[in-house]
Amino acid sequence: MEDNEVKQRNAVPASRGYVGTIESDRTFYRRLGGQLKQLRYNAGLTRTECSEIFNLAETTLKKYERGERKMPLQIFLMYCRYFHVSADHILMGRS
Predict the structure, then answer these.
(1) What is the pLDDT of residue 15?
(2) How far apart are CA 32 and CA 79, in angstroms?
(3) Fold annotation for 24-92
């Protein structure tokens, strides 16, 4: 298969409003973790305080924030509710 064909197979259809290719899981979870860490930091919470709020081990929260571990949807939604932000705001940088 030619390189051009591979690129076309990995591209997201423009009709859905997306441009480019799908980012890797690693890139996505690193970016997501950075957004979550920023929310915690802006709220003035330490990692220890935040892990207690969400009933998580501090090391688990650390791995979420570094993008080293995939965050379950339930935890992600708890973040949205606690910090009063939409999922879109966290995922896409929109309010």
Answers:
(1) 46
(2) 12
(3) 434 Repressor (Amino-terminal Domain) (1.10.260)
